[in-house]
Design brief:
Umud Fragment, subunit A, 2 helices, single chain, mainly beta, 37 strands, Jelly Rolls, eight-stranded mixed beta sheet, eight-stranded antiparallel beta sheet, flat
Length: 458
């Protein structure tokens, strides 16, 4: 159930944005310990770059410390501080930052390895009664170990995974709002400061000025067409927890959420079409939300190059009041679009079946944009999130992938949240009700100062 639940792992800090990434470590399946062959002998460098001050962590399998180390911020080898080297056992791996997408090398010591989460299981949750779809269940599938996964398929149903979505009895299974909120994974937060080691997150049009605190001032009063900012990093089905195995998570994710705080100012006099525009791109389609500034009214439509817009819904209550801060959320998940303004759901509309394959063609197939027309204002915090994307490829995976899978009348189909790395019903098939042990509901360990991770499992 990573990344929500962790096994044995270490934490690697991104040199670009300082995000702490939990990275799993393979352990012996019987003892649960890191095998001795995992470690090497040598030296670890842990100190600031002599040129820019960025923290550098590097390891060397050698009999003496090296005179230079590589600084990811300077992108060059710099003079090493001899006092920053120490003899140590270590292991190294590549890490992908979940926040800024930087791929970086990390060295870690045995004393930096952290144990996995320990959980409490409610064994009376299903006595009597049956588990519900999307419950986090604990079950026994073989004699050696127990598993914790998310229940997706119910007895007697047919299930199939298509382009990351779960199809039940031939239809996309749309997650309830509370479940969807749990499963969103953040891929960008404008408040996180970066050092410029990776490609900038946004392509900014003239008139959009970053303020340095994760916000923008924008002026589109005189622009002939809507102008704004476009996210330009790929959104992939990748988890930092999976470490250096970059074969996992190379699939583009098309189900995205855009959350932002915006304050629009008075529109240009005589321009009744002043609006904030949000785009979620699933090539070749662009799902466009238009919210009027001052005047009431908005719409959600589908745009394709060379074609006429297809209006999905008119939203007469969609409005931004000039001079006021508004929280706007625009979601695309399970082939459904949703708009929330200031915490209230304003629109919820399914995509037509013609959009089934949109956003699946290539890495650049999904993105988001924030645009403005004939108005100016302040764009505060922006968050981009992605939905869980169930993978349909893998050596050991065979059920519910190419063809629908029939779940037995006494069976359940369970999937892991870390889909690229999860061993689950895609490999085993359905599990019997007699295998259920209960519902996972509380993480009770670790509960230490500086590492307090107690909380409910959702």
């Amino acid at each position: 159930m990573a990344p929500g639940l962790h096994g044995v792992h270490f934490e690697g800090t991104c040199p670009n944005c300082s995000t702490v990434n939990s990275v799993g470590i393979r352990t012996d399946p019987f003892s649960g310990k890191v095998p001795p062959r995992h470690w090497s002998d040598g030296f670890i460098y842990d100190g600031p770059c002599s040129e820019c001050g960025t923290g550098v962590r590097e390891a060397a399998r050698s009999s003496r410390p090296a005179p230079k180390v590589y600084c990811p911020s300077c992108r060059d080898h710099v003079v090493a501080d001899p006092e920053a080297w120490s003899r140590s056992r270590f292991a190294t791996t590549d890490v992908w930052c979940r926040e800024c997408t930087l791929r970086f090398r990390v060295a870690y010591r045995p004393d930096e390895v952290q144990g996995g989460h320990k959980i409490l299981v409610n064994k009376f949750a299903y006595h009597p009664g049956d588990p519900g779809r999307w419950d986090v269940i604990v079950f026994r599938f073989n004699r050696e170990r127990n598993y914790i996964k998310r229940l997706v398929g119910m007895p007697g149903e047919t299930i199939q995974i298509v382009d990351g979505d779960v199809h039940i009895d031939g239809e996309v299974c749309r997650k309830p709002t509370d479940v969807q909120e749990i499963l969103w994974a953040k891929v960008y937060d404008s408040r996180v400061k970066e050092r410029g080691i990776v490609v900038p997150a946004w392509n900014e049009a003239p008139g959009w000025i970053p303020a340095g605190d994760g916000s923008w001032e924008f002026n589109a009063l005189d622009a002939q067409n809507p102008t704004g900012i476009t996210y330009q990093r790929p959104v992939l089905n990748r988890y930092s927890y999976n470490g250096g195995d970059f074969r996992m998570g190379t699939t583009v994710v098309r189900d995205l959420a855009l959350r932002l705080r915006v304050r629009a100012e008075e529109p240009k006099p005589g321009k009744s079409d002043a609006a904030l525009i949000l785009d979620i791109v699933n090539e070749p389609s662009r799902y466009r939300l238009t919210i009027s500034v001052e005047n009431s009214g908005g719409r959600i439509e589908i745009l394709q190059e060379g074609g006429d817009p297809t209006v999905l819904i008119e939203i007469p209550t969609a409005r931004l009041r000039p001079g006021q801060d508004h929280e706007v959320e625009f979601y695309c998940a399970d082939r459904n679009l949703r708009l929330r303004i200031d915490g209230e759901t304003i629109a919820d509309v399914p995509l037509p079946v013609t959009e089934s394959d949109s956003g699946t063609s290539r890495v650049e197939a999904s993105s988001v944009s924030v645009l403005a027309r004939h108005c100016g204002g302040h764009l505060g915090r922006i968050e981009i999130l992605r939905d869980i994307h169930y993978t349909s490829s893998g050596i050991s995976l065979k059920h519910a992938l190419g063809n629908p899978y029939q779940i037995p009348v006494d069976g359940f189909f369970a999937l892991g949240d870390n889909s690229p790395s999860s061993l689950d019903s895609r490999a085993w098939g359905a599990l019997s009700r007699s295998n259920l042990l209960g519902r996972g509901f509380v993480i009770f360990w670790p509960a230490l100062p500086g590492q307090f991770e107690m909380g409910f499992i959702r």
